Amino acid sequence: MIAFDGETTSSPPHEGGGGQIEMTPAKARERMLAVYTRMPNNPAMRDMFTRYFAALDTREGASLVHCFAGKDRTGVAASLLLHALGVHPDDVMSEFLRTNDAPTVHILERQSLPRMQAHYGEIAPEARRNLMGVLPEYLDTYITEATRIAGSLDAYMAEVLGVDSSRKARLQARFVA
User: pTM for this one?
Assistant: First the structure.
């Protein structure tokens, strides 16, 4: 098992904090874009994703990736893996957006909505979707920030996460061939 006993064990990013404010759809979107902007720089995320790829490269058997909501950190991890495996960016995005069709959204809402409303007050349905779902621009924001850091997503994965061309080739041989 790979875990990080730091900030990734606290509240998920969509739950927020900071007292009651009116959570409009625009504010919800901005909040999530800020999360995805910080993620490529976040030491905890870098550590988790680095160890995730090392495990995929060296361990036998299946893997399970999850986080509280199973949409942000998990979505990025799965998207990065698909990218490393050579999946077309349109297909990576399509898979990322499947989160919005998850049959367990009602469970996430039941778990998260009371805490979210304690912070924000009543949350309009579109704002709730922006917080508890994903938008294409969320993943695009992560990729843009990773590219800003290293020049390209591939360079970021190699320099920051240890997914160089050799590791990519091994992952592709293991999972695609």
Answer: 0.86
69 CB-contact burial (10 Å; exposed 0-12 / middle 13-18 / buried 19+)? buried
Closest CA to 2 of 58, 55, 78, 69: 55
Contact between residue 53 and residue 163 where contact means Cβ atoms under 8 Å apart: yes
Sign of CA dihedral 73, 100, 153, 173: positive
* Annotated active-site residue in 33, 44, 65, 67: 67
Residue 92 is among the residues annotated as catalytic for this protein: no
Where helices occur in the chain by DSSP H, the ranges are 25-38, 43-58, 73-84, 89-97, 105-120, 125-132, 136-150, 153-159, 165-175
Q: Which domains does the chain have, with CATH numbers?
A: 21-175 (3.90.190.10)
Q: Closest Cα to residue 63, out of 77, 43, 73, 83?
A: 77
- From first to last of its 177 residues, the chain has per-residue pLDDT tens of 565 565 544 445 555 555 567 889 999 999 999 999 999 999 999 999 999 999 999 988 777 676 666 789 899 999 999 999 999 999 999 999 998 988 777 777 888 888 888 888 888 899 999 998 999 999 999 999 999 999 999 999 999 999 999 999 999 999 997
- Taking the CA atoms of residue 12, residue 161, residue 37 and residue 120 in that order, the dihedral angle to the nearest 10 degrees is 0
